[in-house]
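WP5 quarterly update. Target: RNA polymerase sigma factor. Source organism: Larkinella insperata. Length: 172 aa.
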Amino acid sequence: MDLQAFKHKVLPVQGRLFRLAKLFLRNREEAEDALQEVLMRLWTKRQQLDSYNSVEALAVQMTRNLCLDKLKSQAHRSTDDNSDLSDVFGHGVSPYEQTELSDSTSLLHRIIGTLPEPQKLILHLRDVEEYSFEEIAEVTGLTVNNIRVILSRARQRVRDSYLKTNDYEAGH
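Structure tokens (predicted):
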């Protein structure tokens, strides 16, 4: 694979790879480092990339594995990085609404962070990256039916935890 083919196949997915790395590592700088390392690994393997059905699926799998390795190799302290919440909040939103959105976002990040790794990955790929079930199957090696079940359970667990926390905070 030459430079032009690499640019065409690999570079367009780097945003997705970064978001996936940030999901696992919960730190912007570490996610950037992981992305750079994955891109370097892909570049060094560029001659073999044509033999893969989907370079994107390979890149996602490499990113996932690298992040899991990083989490296992160090006593990784999860830090909530809400620095990019200002992108989500539109101008004209009251400080009260910003605080509510920030609290809800932080709670959802914490809940999703407690999910088992397969649920977290599939939820992210489907709901954030908008992968099809077939693309997720290619990345994870699971069947479409397994993915649907895992996704349903992950969504239910997030929903239940969110509602339970909000009901508790409301004093119900």
